[in-house]
Amino acid sequence: MTSVASSVDLRDSADSHSPKPKLDHKLDIRALLVFLAVIALGLAFTAWSIYKDILESGAPVTNYLPFILLGVALLIALGFEFVNGFHDTANAVATVIYTHSMPAPVAVVWSGFFNFLGVLFSTGAVAFGIVSLLPVELILQVGSQAGFAMVFALLIAAIVWNLGTWWLGLPASSSHTLIGSIIGVGVANALIRGRDGTSGVDWGKATDIGYSLLLSPLFGFGAAALLLLVMKFLVRKPELYAEPKGQAAPPLWVRGLLILTCTGVSFAHGSNDGQKGMGLIMLILIGTVPTSYALNRALPASHLESFTKASHAASKVVETKAAGYNVLGDPRPAVTIYVAQHQINEGTYPSLAVLIRDISHQVESYGSISKIPFAAVGNTRNDIYLASEALRFLAKDKAAELTDSDKKVLKEYKDQIDQATKFIPLWVKIAVAIALGLGTMIGWKRIVVTVGEKIGKQHLTYGQGASAELVAAGTIAAADMYGLPVSTTHVLSSGVAGTMAANGAGVQMATIQKLLMAWVLTLPAAILLSASLYFVLRQVM
After folding, report:
1. CA nearest 200: which of 343, 395, 341, 383?
2. Cβ within 8 Å of residue 55, ≥6 positions away
3. Which has more pLDDT, 67 or 432?
4. How far is CA 195 from the centre of its chain?
5. Which segments of 58-144 does DSSP mark as H helices, in order?
6. Do residues 386 and 373 lie in contact, with contact meaning Cβ atoms separated by under 8 Å?
7. Would you report the helix, strand and coil content of the chain in percent, each value rounded to 5?
């Protein structure tokens, strides 16, 4: 299947005496047909799943325009994951290809399969961590013209930058790109509304993610270098630290180790990066088909009992903080202002108390989340999202003056309501998994050559490849557990550089400078692209 993506512009210098792998392969028409068939089946499965969910909701279809927008938005979102696949996953296969542990066509198909599995078994925490960066007013109006402009702008900007850096063979970060695109939309939205541009972004969450993106490559460099030195001390096998001899495969045990590390990186990449597209697809579905996707109707009836208990406990905590103030009218604007500005005033706690009581009344009056009528699900979902975000910020707000006991009660309530809105249908995971998995089989060569040949001054050894990938897999898996997006590209390429430094091989500074430039420019470039696109789309939509 990889032969579909074989590039003719990069020469294959491999021969029987050269350690460089054979990267070019003839186009196999059968592989192309299978590839196209999988794409067609994936799109058909997605369309059928949406149709089935809408049919089961029982909501009447009165306007087909939202479904046209849904189709376009889903294609763009899946296109982002497809590009993400061939842009980032080349890092996972570079080491096994350049150590001759696996032929290039087999390696990319293998990696694609484990990317697919990684997406399917992902937790969803990263998906909603990404979504929480978006401006709250756009989240609450995601089905509006502004909401669609937001989704289109950030996805198109991310795709454009990813394609540009791929064309130049630069291992830039898809995670970095998407975060920049989200920030750009947030800043542009705030400016359009006459506010300070810095007020359009959750900078606390952005800072947490920024630290993970900043520190993960530094950790990758240091940890991979240290691991290689430890391996040299503990595993005294000279063949592990030698470059390949011609086109010969490494010893079986070395080969197994390298394939295992490639598998781990591929699975971890799918688990972490695949979630970014999932979160955005859920936003698209909520905006266009709220009757089916605004609330998790699969929650069991037993959920009501635990929800009711947690709701009453949370109400008491918030009402105590309200200190006798009452709210006349709609409580939502005051809570929305707090979520947007993170500043507590005399209306914050009273309004939140009313909102919690309203949510409790809505759910309890119908008997369960699944029984809320389709005409009301959009409003209920927005109320739950607003309350959840307010509680998230209050837990970190020193001005809230919450005790540890208060925080525990509010967290239990937040966990209960999040079950109703923070869910990902299985078909969404499958669609994203197919897009990411197929993407690994296209266009991988440019990035593979950079990682395999242009970072170090010497050919990659078996031990270096294993060290870099072990660190990358572990770092990405740990970040997934904490719901933080990290860059497979940054972690693995910096890991390779770390092993080169530790091995005394030296690094090619010209390549390192280009990587650093792409790393530095990605964020501002993505911000500028998405902000500009958002301004334009707001004028035409």
Report:
1. 341
2. none
3. 432
4. 28
5. 65-88, 90-98, 104-120, 125-131, 136-140
6. no
7. 75, 0, 25
Rounded CA separation 158/114 (Å): 24
Those residues whose C-beta lies under 8 Å from the C-beta of residue 447, and which sit 6 or more positions away, are 87, 90, 91, 94, 166, 169, 170, 171, 489
Per residue, what are the HEC states of 131-155?
HCCCCHHHHHCCCCHHHHHHHHHHH
CB 130 within 8 A of CB 507: no
Per DSSP, 4 falls in state G
Confirm if 268 and 391 have CB atoms less than 8 A apart.
no
Q: What is the DSSP letter of 123?
A: -
Single-letter residue type at 306: S
- What's the whole-number average pLDDT of the chain? 81
Q: CA 229 to CA 321: how far, in whole Å?
A: 56
Sign of CA dihedral 123, 42, 47, 534: positive
What are residue 385's phi and psi, to 5 degrees? -60, -45
List CB contacts of 240: < 8 A, sequence separation 6 or more.
231, 254, 461, 462, 463, 466
- Could you say which DSSP state residue 124 is in? S
Mutual angle of helices 65-88 and 488-502, in 10-degree steps = 10
Average pLDDT over residues 525-529: 91
Tokens of 347: 């209306």
Cβ atoms within 10 Å, residue 245? 12
Is the CB of residue 166 less than 8 Å from the CB of residue 7? no
- 456 phi/psi in degrees, rounded to 5: -95, 160
Given this model, what pLDDT does residue 4 score?
42
Residue with tokens 């029987």: 16
Q: 243: alpha, beta or left, given left = phi > 0 and alpha = psi -120 to 50?
A: beta
Apex CA 514: angle with CA 509 and CA 516, to 5°?
90
pTM: 0.79
